[in-house]
From TrEMBL:
Domain of life, per lineage: Eukaryota
Family under the similarity heading: Belongs to the BetVI family.
GO biological process assignments: abscisic acid-activated signaling pathway; alkaloid metabolic process; defense response
Name by which UniProt lists this protein: Bet v I/Major latex protein domain-containing protein
Glycoprotein recorded as keyword: no
GO molecular function: abscisic acid binding; protein phosphatase inhibitor activity; signaling receptor activity
SUPFAM superfamilies found in the cross-reference section: Bet v1-like
Cellular-component GO terms for this entry: cytoplasm; nucleus
Length: 157
């Protein structure tokens, strides 16, 4: 038997949806996550688009692999699933993260992050390790990055 769960959060970002998507989309997120959250992100298969496999090396702990199962540029949706290591080593049979950018205006969007998981019944206590907080922090960092680069761009004119 397995236990299923999900957690989701939404955060408004004061930047156009397409600009935020440029970071969430393919491998642009590495600009934000390395070196603050990860020591390295390496694309080991593919070009960073749908079907690609990335090796993520945390600042502490063992590397793990995730597959980009969906990269939809038109609808600004990206899904990844861990394929080796991390939560799978803790009895999870599925750990999926979905990022969605939803335009709310010319210069703003909602970033929705959803984590879905399945865990074997004997490891259900490990479900408490699932946290949406890193996704919230990354969304805040993306907004700060975009706003800082917008200011730099304006200042250079």
């Amino acid at each position: 038997m397995k236990t299923f769960g999900s957690v989701s959060t939404e955060m408004e970002i004061q930047s156009p949806a397409r600009e935020a998507w440029a970071l969430y989309g393919a491998v642009g997120l590495t600009v934000i996550t390395v070196p603050k959250y990860l020591a390295a992100v390496d694309i080991v298969e593919g070009d960073g688009g749908e079907g690609s496999i990335a090796k993520l090396t945390p600042l502490s702990g063992s590397p793990y692999y995730e597959k980009f199962t969906k990269v939809d540029d038109k609808h600004m949706v990206k899904e990844t699933e861990i394929t080796e290591g991390a939560f799978l080593d803790l009895g999870f049979t599925l750990y999926r993260i979905r990022f969605e950018n939803i335009p709310t205006g010319e210069h703003s969007c909602i970033t929705r992050t959803t984590i879905e998981w399945e865990v074997k019944e004997e490891y259900v206590a490990n479900s408490t390790r699932v946290s949406i907080l890193p996704s919230i922090n990354i969304a805040k960092d993306i907004e700060a990055y975009l706003l800082a680069n917008e200011k730099k761009h304006k200042d250079s004119k």
